[in-house]
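haha ok so turns out i had the wrong file open the whole time. this is the CORRECT one, sorry everyone. sequence first:
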Amino acid sequence: MIRAILFDVMGTLVHEPFYGDIPKFFGCSLEDLRVQRHPTAWIDFEKGEIDEDEYARRFFLDGRVLDKDGLKRALTTSYIWLEGMEALCQDLVARGLPLHALSNYSPWYAMIEEKLGLSRYLKWSFVSCDTGHRKPDSEAYLGAARALGLAPEECLFIDDRPVNVDAAKKLGMPAVLFEDVASLRAKLTTLI
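then structure:
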């Protein structure tokens, strides 16, 4: 029996700006941005290993200064609910199901909360910058289940990345690959 739902946030509940909006902010293609930026700075920021000032210092491989405030404004502008997902969260909460974030993200998740108020529906319980564990690391999932006092099979995990969904399933946690709200609603009818 499912007793809690663990949602990825970016690309599942909220529009992911990295693939379109953020390269536009920098005036380059996604491919060019990937070549120019430090390969682990964002991951380290998401794991809570560095703060935002260190992230800004390490952002570009060539040492250029990052317009951190401009980037934060661009991100905030891009944060919007994915179509139908707010209504789905409302429906799940009305059914009495506790919802939690299980998401890889930096402390900047506070900007998402400030703009969209996800906490009306879910708790920001398991964000990688706070837990130190990024999906698909098994401890991201097992630690969340332990913290909730549940077995992995009592938690339903929803994410837009196959690697994260597969990792949850390998641990015995039911998981759904998010593609769109209609297909997710259909899958949920058989799971909860």
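The first helix runs from residue 21 to 26.
again sry for the mixup
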